[in-house]
Every structure is written in C-alpha cells, then in structure tokens.
Amino acid sequence: MKKISASILSLFFAAAVGAQTNITLEDVSKHIGDSVTVCGKVADMRYFENSKNKPTFLNIGAKYPNQSLTLVIWETTRALFTTKVDDLMNKEICITGRIILFKEKPEIIIERPDQIVVQ
Questions:
Q1: In CATH, what number does 20-118 get?
Q2: Angle at 32 between CA 91 and CA 13, to 5 degrees
C-alpha cells in the first residue's frame, strides 16, 4: 500500500512541476527561463534554407525586429509537421515552451509540432 501511495504522490508532484503558466504576449519578457503557454499572431516568417540546420523563424506579435517573441523551428523539427509551417503565417497560435533570451529578444525553440496550436 505504501508503494502505491508513494507512486501516486510522485505522479501528482511530477504533473504539478510540469504544468505550464499561461501568460500574455506582453508579459513574455518577464518570464525568461519559465515554461509557459502564450498566444499571439504570426506576423512574420523567415526560412533560412542555406544556413546551418535550416532554421525557420516565426515572429509573434509584430514583424522583425519589433516582435514580442520569436519561435525557432530547426529543419529536423520542421520535418515532423504534418501541415506546412508556412500555413501558420497570419494565424493566431498558442505556443507552449520555455522562454530563453537570444540577442536580448525572447524566443522559444520548438522541439515538437504539438507545442503550437492554431486558434
């Protein structure tokens, strides 16, 4: 019985730790290092097919360089999408992931397609 109770308790804590915080696009810069869910419009998209790892950058909230958040999708992850990443342009999406800073701008690296949900 103790093993079952301990297992259930550890699952509860694992779920609580893995929970995402919902934030607004305006608050992204206040949550560097946090795992969050944030929603916004894809305002700009850039695909660098001649660069290492062929990144795709989705700029959320405004066009580069005034975006509130940048999503980075590497070539290996882009291949996992069942729909075209280009179809996200001008769509309202919600993104779940950890916010990092790159060149003083917030970004989330997309590792799985399910991190992006079209609204």
A1: 2.40.50.140
A2: 95
